[in-house]
Design brief:
D-amino Acid Aminotransferase, Chain A, domain 2; 7 helices; 27% helix; binds N-(5'-phosphopyridoxyl)-D-alanine
């Protein structure tokens, strides 16, 4: 595999990241996961805008990462993924320096790493079709979930608990609100209206979430941006997780209890169809 590392394209096995890297020592860095559909990056500008937002709030000395779009395209090309279903991962850290909590002075060069991977679209399509189970867990993350930092310990533990419970995702609950998943945003349907949490410091402003909300606006589907309370969730007709790697996946059960009639609902199906058109995928599937 050919990776990108600090302005170079090289064999992944030859990448050498220092043990003093602040990403390794302190999770002092950001990441992004982009999806490529047949070689075409999905909403790359939105991913870069989110990375730039994170960089500003993390006070990284560099503000604009738009040069990573052609890097992503080059990674796809060099790995034979120019026509394939793939993801591109980028990670940027504050660089390598003697361990200290405060920023290193002088500031070392940032560590910028990227790789492209084939994406198992068939497995995802099966989950789009069948839907998945989710569980709820207390949100044990910090209060800056709007930054896509590599500090994912709470997400890792919650996602593992979901897997051990036979579920695909854990929906994190903070102050009685179903906030978002460990690697996806969460939406529910009440009275035919799509409801999802407004952006705040407690959720990641998902690119898929944004795309879905734009599709709703364009097609006259009613949306309400407000918290989804655990206490009202039994009234939800549908639920879904949305994200780069799950698109619009129906959630059929939460904590073992069926959502609505326990089958993928009409709004989820409609959004899947609209999303498919957006990414140039034939729909319905075979
Ligand atoms: N995660 N919320 C969280 C906590 C996430 O980690 C993600 C994405 C999302 C959805 O955002 P988007 O639509 O931009 O992918 C919401 C990526 C895919 C990951 O960690 O692998």
């Amino acid at each position: 595999m050919i990776a990108y590392f600090n302005n170079d394209f090289l064999d992944k096995d030859l990448v050498r990241i220092s043990p003093d890297d602040r990403g390794f020592l302190l999770a002092d860095g950001l990441y992004e996961v982009l999806r490529s559909y047949g070689g075409k990056l999905f909403r790359a500008a939105d991913h870069i805008a989110r990375l730039n937002y994170g960089a500003r709030h993390l006070r990284l000395p560099q503000g604009d990462f738009s040069y990573l779009v052609p890097v992503a395209e080059e990674l796809l090309r060099r790995n034979g993924l120019a026509d394939a279903e793939a993801t591109v991962y980028f990670q940027i850290t504050r660089g390598a320096a003697k361990r200290s909590h405060a920023f290193p002075a002088p500031q070392p060069p940032l560590t910028v790493y990227g790789q492209a991977n084939p994406f198992d679209e068939q497995a995802m399509l099966r989950r789009l079709e069948t839907g998945v189970a989710a569980i709820t867990l207390p949100d044990q993350r910090w209060a800056r979930c709007d930054m896509k930092t590599v500090g994912l310990t709470a997400n890792v533990l919650a996602n593992q608990a979901a897997h051990e419970a036979g579920a695909a995702e854990a929906i994190l609950v903070r102050d009685g609100v179903l906030i978002e998943g460990t690697h996806s945003n969460f939406m529910a349907v009440f009275g035919g209206t799509l409801v999802t949490a407004p952006t705040s410091n407690y959720i990641l402003a998902g690119i898929t979430r944004k795309a879905v909300l734009e599709l709703c606006a364009r097609h006259g589907l009613p949306v309400e941006l407000r918290p989804i309370f655990a206490s009202e969730f039994h009234l939800a007709e549908e639920a879904m997780i949305v994200g780069t790697t799950v698109e619009v996946t129906p959630v059929l059960t939460v904590d073992g209890r069926p959502v609505g009639n326990g089958r993928p609902g009409p709004l989820a199906r409609r959004l899947q169809a609209l999303f498919a058109a957006e990414v140039g995928r034939p729909w319905p599937l075979g």
